[in-house]
Design goal:
4-stranded antiparallel beta sheet; disordered N terminus; 24 helices; alpha+beta
Length: 706
């Protein structure tokens, strides 16, 4: 009671404490999520020049893009596609507004009509676009389908935007061009020639071990050229795989299980309180029913030649008799047992032609009003004609066949193997000889079939194959999960690599993945792993287990790099060779002595080489490679003059100009000016968008949601 009295006495104090705690919790959440405007932040996937991109609308577009991509695209590909569309739309809309670019309703209508001119839906009987049909279509969808009408409005809007964009880009293109002087320059760069003699002191003549490049020098170079060495945020990982593979015990149990299905067995029937005898594959009278009830793969009622039978049993099968049973044998990811149902000699391929006569009610009937009885009568009539005069087959196929894929080829189906066609058609084609003509009924209609040719007859078998997929048992899956969990704990308590080594596991590194990537080398699309790596709560050294289709992976975050300039280590592969060349160039320049090429070559153990007809457009020196600096220096040098040392791509050069051959003057350089102008105009579309994007203030939050 004393305790209760104390609580009552201090109730106001307790209420204040609880209120402060709740306030602190809410305040911390606000701070963590961006303050009081966090709700807006959660609904905004990006901000482009102050324009917010709504997350819900963006998600709807991603969903539509994913549907259009089908199975060929991933979700992140759809996200990136929609992102590029959104950025383009916002940036261009700003330009349209600033410049006052508009497209009138009449212009949109004209563009819509032009784009739909070849659509049969909007053409009259003469195949000409009919505006009234278009108006009727729009009115109909507006009245009957709000969704379809919205799609139409979206289409009109896209046409309007396209027209604005074209007008905008055309305005820029109108200001892009080349003068006659630029045309003349282009002509001279291509046709002015220079012949030189040169001595090359290759960089390879100085071993890399004689030149050192420090991290400080690399960092200084990066800071000098920051635009070249921008780095996105990245993460590095390493992982091990615990593959969920069936054990030897699982395979042994499956073999035992499938072997038991070969033989008859007794089974208690609770309904009749009797013991029934269930026939196995060896003795069953209905192999198709037996296979379909007991096998993971359905019964295939077709003949196979030796090259189509599993190599595990092919030799034995073709030396055995009908009724013989083989297996169990392993075939890919299945264990199988097979029984020879039939064995025949038949051609391994047949060439045939057909005339298909359909009737009303069939999926392939098209617009025919013909009844089945009328179709049979017509088929029999055509059969009689072609039997008496085979030359009429092609003409009748063109006139009567409902198979549009080959009617214009005289009904020619080419060569096909057993089982390719539907069963009645297949049986006629392989059970009869070359030259036979007959009528066959299938689900497609009546076929007048003519066997044109058959290849050499070979032995074929029809197999009833019972297959069961080799899969991990629950016991095996539990064991693998336990092993994964143990490793995860051991890797946290000790060293990841050492823990993997102790279990003979291969550690696979993944370097520099970006925030919006999804593919992990060796695993494929694993977006959840990338999201975890970039989560603000994930620290370097953290370890996590993930489910993957093959089983489990245990991943460790090994490095975290934020957006900014590359580190010296990351840029070393690119920058170090540049600095090595610069240092070697200085060493080589200091070694050069002599005033003539012969003297320089002699002192350096090199030879004087020649290169003829060099030009500025393709500055390639035979025996040296692409060297624009050297060729440029040659054009700036007078004939007979020897240059100072020139630092090139592949070495240091000293050159002497032997001869300059100016290009023949033209009456006009208009064609070259036009070509230069065309090249510049063709680059406008991509360059304008890239320039707008580079200048834009873009806050990209896609990684927070995808």
């Amino acid at each position: 009671m004393a305790v209760l009295n104390k609580i009552r006495q201090r109730s106001v104090f307790l209420i204040v404490i609880i209120a402060l705690a709740l306030f602190s919790f809410v305040l911390a959440d606000l701070i963590r999520n961006g303050g009081a405007i966090s709700q807006k932040s959660q609904n905004t996937i990006a901000t482009i020049n102050g324009n917010d991109i709504d997350r819900t609308a963006f998600a709807q577009k991603v969903e539509a893009a994913s549907r259009s991509f089908g199975t060929n695209g991933s979700s992140i590909q759809a996200v990136n596609y929609v992102w590029n569309q959104e950025v383009r739309e916002v940036l261009f809309d700003e330009q349209f507004e600033e410049l006052g670019i508009q497209v009138g309703e009449d212009e949109v209508n004209i563009l819509v009509q032009e784009s739909l001119a070849n659509n049969p839906t909007f053409q009259n009987e003469a195949g000409v676009f009919d505006k009234a049909k278009l108006q009727e279509y729009v009115a109909n969808v507006k009245a009957t389908s709000p969704e379809a009408y919205q799609q139409w409005l979206d289409y009109e809007a896209s046409v309007s935007k396209g027209a604005k964009e074209e007008a905008y880009l055309n305005m820029i293109k109108a200001g892009v061009g080349a003068t006659l002087s630029e045309g003349e320059l282009a002509y001279k760069m291509e046709n002015d020639k220079v012949d030189i003699k040169y001595v090359q002191l290759p960089y390879s003549s100085i071993p890399d071990t004689e030149v050192t490049v420090s991290d400080a020098e690399i960092e200084a170079y990066i800071e000098k050229y920051p635009k070249r060495y921008k780095a996105d945020a990245s993460r590095s990982l390493r992982y091990v795989v615990f593959e969920e593979k069936p054990s030897e015990e699982d395979e042994a149990e499956l073999k035992e299980e499938i072997t038991a299905l070969l033989n008859d067995r007794a089974e208690f029937n609770s309904a009749t309180n009797t013991t029934d005898s269930i026939k196995g594959l060896r003795n069953t009278e209905n192999v198709e029913e037996f296979i379909n009830e007991n096998s993971a793969l359905k019964y295939s009622d077709r003949f196979s030649f030796k090259n189509n039978v599993s190599s595990a049993i092919a030799d034995d099968v073709f030396e055995s008799n009908v009724g013989d049973v083989f297996g169990p044998y392993k075939d890919g990811e299945y264990y199988k047992v097979s029984k020879i149902v039939a064995k025949e000699t038949m051609p391994d391929s047949t060439k045939a032609s057909h005339i298909l006569i359909s009737w009303k009610g069939l999926n392939t009937a098209g617009t025919t009003e013909r009844t089945k009885e009328e179709a049979k009568k017509l088929a029999d009539s055509i059969l009689a004609v072609v039997k008496s005069d085979k030359d009429k087959f092609a003409t009748l196929a063109t006139e009567y066949s409902a198979d549009s894929s080959n009617k214009d080829k005289g009904g020619d189906l080419g060569y096909f193997t057993p089982g390719t066609m539907v069963k009645p058609f297949n049986d006629f084609s392989f059970n009869n000889g070359k030259g036979e003509i007959g009528v066959v009924e299938t689900a497609f209609g009546y076929h007048i079939v003519s066997i044109e040719d058959q290849t050499e007859a070979k032995t074929a078998v029809k197999l009833a194959t019972l297959a069961r997929k080799i899969e991990s048992s629950e016991k095996t899956m539990n064991t693998i999960f336990t092993e994964t969990t143990k490793f995860q704990k051991e890797a946290k308590d000790s060293d990841f690599s050492e823990a993997a080594k102790a279990k003979n596991l291969t550690v696979r590194p993944v370097n520099k993945i970006k925030e919006l990537e999804e593919n992990i080398p060796g695993l494929g699309a694993q977006r959840s792993v990338v999201q975890w790596a970039f989560n603000e709560d994930t620290n370097v050294g953290d370890i996590k287990r993930f489910d993957v289709p093959a089983g489990y992976i245990v991943v460790q975050l090994t490095a975290s790099t934020e957006k900014g300039l590359m580190s010296a280590a990351d840029a070393s592969m690119t920058v170090k060779p540049i600095l090595l060349k610069d240092k070697k160039a200085e060493l080589l320049k200091n070694k050069i002595s002599g005033t003539t090429l012969d003297a320089i070559a002699s002192s350096q153990g090199q030879t004087v080489k020649t290169a003829s007809a060099l030009n500025m457009t393709t500055p390639t020196i035979s025996g040296a490679g692409t060297e624009p600096r050297v060729v440029g220096a040659a054009f700036a040098l007078a004939e007979g003059k020897v240059s100072n040392p020139i630092q090139g791509n592949n070495g240091v050069y000293v050159i002497e100009v032997v001869k300059k051959t100016p290009a023949i003057k033209l009456d006009t350089y208009k064609s070259y000016a036009n070509q230069t102008s065309k090249t510049q105009v063709n680059a406008v579309n991509s360059r304008v968008f890239n320039a707008l994007k580079d200048a834009a203030d873009i806050e990209d939050k896609r990684a927070n949601f995808y």
